[in-house]
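Notebook, bench 3.
Goal today: get a predicted structure for NADPH oxidase 2 from Geococcyx californianus so we can plan the truncation constructs. The sequence was checked against the plasmid map this morning, with no discrepancies at the termini. Length recorded as 302 residues. Pasting the sequence as submitted so the record is complete.
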Amino acid sequence: TWKWVVGPMFLYLCERLVRFWRSQQKVVITKVVIHPFKTIELQMMKKGFKMEVGQYIFVKCPAVSKLEWHPFTLTSAPEEDYFSIHVRIVGDWTEGLFNACGCDKQEFQEAWKLPKIAVDGPFGTASEDVFSYETVMLVGAGIGVTPFASVLKSVWYKYCHDATNLKLKKIYFYWLCRDTHAFEWFADLLQSLEAQMQERNNAEFLSYNIYLTGWDESQATHFVVHHEEEKDVITGLKQKTLYGRPNWENEFKTIAGRHPGSRIGVFLCGPEGLADTLNKQSISNSEADPRGVHFIFNKENF
């Protein structure tokens, strides 16, 4: 038995040593931003840290717990000189981090008072392949929208730097959430991208649809009353918020009709049930002819 056990145990110990060494590297919190509905953004710097879009890291805060590591998706772009995560306060550990960063106090916090943070990573995800396609569908459900903050930021930096050499030409973005209040920081990012694309006369580069899946009668009535206004009353975006769930068969057929003969990347960060639906639609809407349209499905479940 020991011959079968010693190899995996050796590899496990090596992995633990690497994680311990990474956790000892110095991480500096450069900025803490408090967003609405108890969401905080931590901007950090670490020597030698390199990331790609959509990756995630493990974070430990010894001031809260000396043993707990928690995964968080990176919401910054590789082009930025820092890396960031968004933390929604929903439990004991996140509440402890919120208090340790001084977010429960009204006065300005000095940088030296911020807690020590250990970071392990980054680790790769399917989202890294976004730039391998000319056309992509990005689908985020609830908190699954966070990887696409990094993707959309990076797309914008690449677009501004050298749009002619950017292979990616069209993004269809879908955001499904029960309510947008918990992720107002992401709506702010979309507003910024929308304004910048219009300034460059390329508003068609990014098409996005926001679906509110948890709505009631009063919200629907409010939606109908304000539907004719220039900007959406919920997100402040020109694109109006939709209620219910998308008809994926119609969405896939519409996109296939607009991009004949293309390889279209479909990227999901969301629950397994939605992954099954999108995978089936990707298969059924791909043509048998190699020269026809093909949907390539990539997923990241939580």
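The helical segments are 2-23, 92-100, 146-162, 184-199, 217-225, 248-258, 272-284. The chain has two domains: 24-123, 126-297.
Flagging this for group meeting.
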